[in-house]
Amino acid sequence: MIITTTALVEGRPVQQYLGLVVGEVIIGANIFRDLFAGIRDIVGGRAGAYENAMRDARKQAIAEIEDEARRLGADAIVGVDLDYEVVGEKGSILMVSISGTAVKLG
């Protein structure tokens, strides 16, 4: 499955637009992750736990749109937009949202 942020896939014309596909993943940050991220922020360095959580959420969201596109008979998703949002009390929830257009290529 080709997944791209561009509107077209070079050398492969779109034969059919199959519809919008959307993936959404919401992850709650646990208290230990928050604690260790805060300590790292104070002493410097990277907040690996948050980076891993964001990476996992992104992979899950991409897998969701890929599964949905396959069900529609697509062989590509074009125009992909990926967004991250922190929501909830004190920003304790990470939401990853991804959308694109499922297409059949020539």
UniProtKB/TrEMBL annotation:
<dbReference type="InterPro" id="IPR035439">
    <property type="entry name" value="UPF0145_dom_sf"/>
</dbReference>
<protein>
    <recommendedName>
        <fullName>UPF0145 protein SAMN04487974_10391</fullName>
    </recommendedName>
</protein>
<dbReference type="Pfam" id="PF01906">
    <property type="entry name" value="YbjQ_1"/>
</dbReference>
<dbReference type="InterPro" id="IPR002765">
    <property type="entry name" value="UPF0145_YbjQ-like"/>
</dbReference>
<comment type="similarity">
    <text>Belongs to the UPF0145 family.</text>
</comment>
